[in-house]
Amino acid sequence: MTSTSYFGVDPGNFSIHWPGEAQFGPGCVDSLAQWASAWNVRKPILISDQGIIDSGLLAPVLELLRASGAEPVIYGGVEANPTISNVVLAKAVWHSQDCDGLIAFGGGSVIDVSKILLAHLCSDAPIVDVLKDGDALLVRPLPPFAAVPTTAGTGSESTTAALIKDEFGRKHVMRSRRCRPQWIALDPRLTLSVPRSVSACTGFDVVMHALGAATNRASNPLGEILAIDALSRSLRALPTVLNDLKNLDARTELMLASYLAGVAMSLRGVDGIHGLCTPLESVVEAPHAHVLAVVCEPLMRFNLETMAPCYARLAVSCGIVSGETSIRDQAHSLIEAICNLRELACLPRSLDDIGANLEAMPSVYEAARTNASLRLNGRQLSQDDIVTVYAAMRGANHKENS
Questions:
Q1: Residue 293 and residue 252: Cα distance in Å, rounded?
Q2: Span 259-268, pLDDT tens digits
Q3: Torsion of CA 130, 134, 136, 141, to 10 degrees
Q4: How many domains, the chain?
Q5: 34 lies in which domain range?
Q6: How far is CA 102 from CA 143, 163, 281, in A?
Q7: Which of 201, 215, 206 shows the shortest CA–CA distance to 334?
């Protein structure tokens, strides 16, 4: 397999592209109105979803925006697994209401739709081409764009990626450095009302994003440092959040971990866990974290043959185990810690658990073969390896690769 071109794998050669300005801490969302005034945004389209609108989280934000003289226009039609039609409808609202700025207020799906909308507004190409080529097709200046994440999980506010499904259910990943938000409010208070099941999913996303960025073959050392820090924070904070949903300190740690993992992914990409997850998501209707939870253990055990030292270093760095045991035992301790976290989060373990149709798997194998994230995996997979690892996801008990 050839290496991906988006994230370099040549030692000593890498690039650094930072996301936009970020305000962090309880209450920082109150600065959103100041951002709108500073950027002369008078009629922003505010992208969200019905759940956020019904929760009441938006009400004080709308009040502050209106008090500052802005007239926000709400588009609340983003779905949990967003589709291109969500972008098309939001674009129609933008034009019909003559909007001049964009605010994403919600979870990863909301922010992903907003990033793709921004690219669609600034390009004359069909949206399917924009999804494929990203920044290369942007021909107009970007309007002001702010994001307020209400979950600690995807890190979409700081990543270069945005995921969306087409009308056939196929998942597309747009990569764009330019379409990241120019201003971000990371207010952990907004996550206190997130229910346990959603907190479990988004928190497990953080762990998987950080793990992927920390262990792949990309050559960006700064991204690796951020990923390890994010992994350590998320492994500590998520169990506390799941046992005490109102723990603001743990929610704060998890939100910071989510943001840092997003930056790390933008610098280094992820690994084969996502490389096998994305093709599978085209044939199942399940949350992203559920698919990651099914994929992670078999792929990590496959990786042990060549990546035990890498996993061992992470286990020690994250405080899971001391450096006094063998490399192999240290590596296993990382896998077991993640499996235990999966159990605490009540996430699925097998393809059966997520309703995968085994007859659709040949198309999944083919999509995985050319997946860019899979090419970044620390241990390379042949086509036979891909089939074998997917097969290991069928049962609840996976054999270790020794």
A1: 23
A2: 999 999 999 9
A3: 90
A4: 2
A5: 28-186
A6: 7, 18, 28
A7: 215
